[in-house]
Design brief:
With 317 residues, this protein is α/β, with parallel strands linked by helices. It is built from eleven helices and seven strands. Strand 2 and strand 3 form a beta hairpin. The N and C termini lie far apart (44 Å).
């Protein structure tokens, strides 16, 4: 019997940025992997900093499916909101294909909705609101598709942890070690409730002291500044146009129209997705874990639906 396999897909959050160990990053997914079972699950982290939904669909998903994982996590979408090419229809189509592919293999899927970067960075309203509107759209899609495919979902877009500075690294966008541990603990609890995880939960308290103030300032002056420059080159011209549009609507008292427009775009994006549902493919036999339900008997997640074989659709340029 093969060992339990866990594959993580996504961007810098899942790569582990904000939780340094040695010369690299660790992160919530690696912490979670240790608590899935005994001995620890076979863990592969395919997440790459800066990844968008397109990167997950086209590059990370094929590698993940080849491993035939028992558990897969897909946390992505924030970087899409920071690009001038943002289109919620494309985001929904890509996420639907990714989630469906794992459902067809009978893989237990982990998802999360996330805070918007504008509020985390403390941007003024006319700049922050357009980004918040985009992230709300992504979160709505993730919520809907997570329910459709029976994913184990962590609502991380709001709550005390968002406002707790001890949870976040110096860049204000990525969790620090404490925040990564919080995510790992919450996902572990869902997996235990679903009868999938049988190992010891990750410790919620940090193992290492937080970075010193001087180290944080050094990071912000080097890597952090480079990150801002890259994003500004791509997003800033459009963000300024969005800010002007925001101010015009405020002056007219019609700001609500922007929210209505965004909600309509999300509804249309979700309505365009296929709704047919087939039986999932059985997983190959794997090593039994004490107290764990077999994932080859159908994903051990309450309310999960099987999913149809979808034909690939042409990607918009």
């Amino acid at each position: 019997m093969r060992p339990v396999r866990y594959v993580a897909l996504g961007d810098s959050l899942t790569e582990g940025v904000g939780d340094p160990v040695g010369n690299g990053w660790r992160g919530w997914a690696a912490l979670l992997a240790r608590g899935l079972c005994e001995p620890p699950a076979a863990f592969t982290n395919l997440a790459v900093s800066g990844a968008q939904t397109r990167d997950v669909l086209e590059a990370q998903l094929p590698a993940a499916l080849a491993l035939r994982p028992d558990v897969a996590s897909v946390l992505v979408g924030v970087n899409d909101t920071l690009r001038r090419t943002f289109d919620i229809h494309h985001v929904a189509e890509r996420l639907d294909k990714v989630y469906a592919a794992f459902a067809r293999q009978g893989t237990a899927l982990l998802t999360a909705c996330l805070p918007d970067p504008g509020s985390m960075l403390g941007l003024p309203g006319v700049l922050g609101h357009p980004l918040a509107r985009r992230q709300r759209a992504v979160n709505t899609v993730v919520h809907a598709l997570s329910e459709r495919y029976g994913a184990l979902h962590v609502h991380a877009a709001e709550g005390d942890w968002v406002d707790d500075r001890e949870m976040w690294s110096s860049d204000r966008l990525h969790p620090g070690e404490r925040g990564h541990r919080q995510l790992a603990v919450r996902f572990h609890g869902l997996l235990v409730d679903a009868g999938i995880a049988s190992g010891t939960a990750p410790a919620p308290e940090p193992e290492f002291p937080p970075p010193t103030k001087s180290a944080s300032l050094l990071w912000l002056a080097t890597a952090g500044t480079a990150w801002v420059v890259r994003r500004c080159n791509d997003l800033l011209p459009q963000l300024l146009r969005l800010a002007v549009d925001e101010m015009r609507h405020r002056a007219r008292g019609t700001s609500g129209q922007l929210d209505v427009r965004a909600a309509q775009a999300v509804s249309m994006a979700l309505a365009s997705l296929s709704l047919s549902v087939p039986e999932p493919m059985p997983l190959p036999e794997h090593r039994a874990v004490p107290g764990q339900r077999s994932l080859s008997e159908g994903v051990a997640v309450p309310g999960q639906h099987s999913v149809p074989e979808q034909q690939p659709e042409p990607e918009a340029a």
